[in-house]
Amino acid sequence: MIKTLDKLMPIKHVISFNKLLMHYEEIEKGDDTFLSARASHILKSQEPFPVLRDGFTDVSLLQKHRDIIKMILQDTFSEVLTGNEIKVASLPYNNVIFNSSKRFQNILRDAGKDYEPSISNIDNGNDYIMACIVILNFYYGYKLDFRKPFFYNIPDKNGVMHHYRILYNADFLEILPTEKAKKITRKDVDELLANPDNVALWMEKLPPGSFISKGFVISNMFDVTTEHSISQIKSQLIASDKRGNENFIDDLQEIFRSFFRLPDIEVGFVVYNSRDNLLEPVYGNNVKSFILNGNGAAECKDILCEDSYSKLLNESSYFTIPNLEEFNKATNGAAPYEVLNKQGVKSVIFAPIASDGELLGVLEVVSNKKNVLNGVNANRLDDIMPFIVSAVVRSKNEEENYIDAIIQNECTSVHSSVYWRFREEAKFFIKDQLEGLQPSFKEITFKDVFPLYGQIDIKDSSKARNDAIQKDLLIQLTQISKVLENTWEKYKLPVYEELLFRVTNHLDSIKEMLYTNSEQSIFDFVQDEIVPVFNHIKNLDKDLEKKVIEYESGIDLETNSYYDHRKQYDDSVTLINKKLASVLDKKQVEAQEMFPHYFERYKTDGVEHNMYVGASISQDKEYNNIYLNNLRLWQLQVMCEMENRHYQLKKELPVPLDAASLILVHNSSLSIRFRMDEKKFDVDGTYNARYEVIKKRIDKSYIRGTSERLTQTGKISIVYSQKKDELEYLRYIKFLKSKGYFTDKVEIVELEGLQGVSGLKAIRAEILYKTDKSSKKTYTYSDLMEELKE
Questions:
Q1: Quick one: which H or E segment has residue 381?
Q2: Which H/E stretch holds residue 511?
Q3: What is the pLDDT of residues 706-729, one digit of tens each?
Q4: What is the dihedral of CA 503, 508, 510, 512, to 10 degrees?
Q5: Are 253 and 265 in contact (CB under 8 A)?
Q6: How far separated are the first and last CA of the chain, in Å rounded?
């Protein structure tokens, strides 16, 4: 308990009992003969040891003069109260402790032989400044509020941490200056108060050793473990990112152990899903549930007994099991006793976390000792449950907001570049609402923005899809035909022959060409007429049953038809879209850093994207047309990279589909408006609608005077109407050719007029490909196809 006094502090501590002895001198002169004689005895006992009055820094003297010091302090340490009071004589803001009460000695004994208490919430720097504030108050007379609670954290014999608040009695302390003390003005104090963490400044104004603290303090301590635990629980629950904090549950369990003063308890949580009447785990680091025991969600009726169900869900009251082993035997291992028993749980408290009568979850407190958790100490939870409920409600709201954000991001995203405008409008909405007006979310429009449109489309996707459907239908009808042939040969019923005839007709009708209504017609025929007959055949004949089951094994459960070739096609399209969208999304992050612009992309049979850039979209960055030129060049380059990614992917596809790319150039600005009904931006105004018409029809256009489609594999088509756009893109192609994106084959073609649109031209540039990302060798499309065949 006794340490050295060698810390660097503004106050040099000198242990002295002078001020207490002066108090005894006053008592000696008093009228109370008993007290006077007692005081005289103490003073005479001290006289042979003047160092106790003069003061000393050698802490070994505390041990040497232990008996006389105890006598001097006997009135401040009442023998009657020594077993109840937690009291020590010590130095202020220091861990030098002497002459303690018996209760404090017992506390230290339980903590361990070598345990040395230290103030838990004071550190180097902070303790120096605290000592300076004491000097400014008691010597210089400035009235500064320096009241701050200090604590000892001391474990008991079971390892449970207890928290003791320290209150100092400084009646027997003198503050005296040394030759190092400086004059302190109001200006100096103001400067110090403006720099509360600048230890160097405090040391300059109040140098180390500039004052002497002569005397000692009486430290009275109070066990505030419960209050401290409640405060810590509150702090832990208020903290953000609890699920992401790996130490959250471990820290919380330690706090609960202090709160209950039980070393062997553990804490768990389980969430209540009111819609489905389920108990669900909390997904986060180390957050466990003893009821679920590592399993997923479970029906409340299955995992709770009738009593616990009623207590938790209907009454919102604690459910306690003081002797779980006994309950488990009495109920023959019913829930929840058996699952808890298997985990070594002997006693438990389940506390409902409920708000406004709605159960949100359950707090589980368990122990591996029977009867330590019971209906009596369960009531202690009353002090902390409001904080837990508040935290869970907040967490639930945060989770709902997060879910909404995910849905918005994945489904109806408001793009980051225009999010600021939506926030502004939302603020106006709230303002109108608070002022009692009828709020409405105003229309959001961005004027004078330049559009960019691009697509990489799967070539002849309709034909590829129809081929896949045709193959699956041919296989399915052939299998049906075989079953019916076997049935007809065996039973010779005319109805089987008639069905077989109709199946043959369907086969003949789709062998050459699949018509628009063929798929649905055949599907209806199979469902309405073949399936009932096959069900009958399965019950009729064991041999035929095997053949029907063999046919049914090829049926896809979701489509109720053969789906092999169509699945290969769908999987190929899905993979192409996923990979191409990934390239575009990654590149978009870089493009936004160049200049903020609205961007959207969507998947069809390929990937399309829209971009809009202009001064009205940027919140705080000045717009210049150079950013439009930059985006056009960026788009052309990225489209080439997406083409490369597709043809690197082609050899991995179940169906080796081709693709063709197109860019539409619009030479003038337009306006876009957010359509609240569809949650998307669209061009605004009749004149601007021409741009949307071109977008929808351009990929189906033909070269003027020919039957040749505009878009071709191995080439990128750039559609425009103005000569300056032509010259601009020819410059870009020439630049990108030098970087290995294009060959010398560049052509300019005129397009057949679209409905309501004429005068369009296009540049078609041949793309150079790489077989993989690391390859330096490039290929034309035809070369690449040969390379991929090898």
A1: none
A2: helix 494-511
A3: 999 999 999 999 999 999 999 999
A4: 170
A5: yes
A6: 84
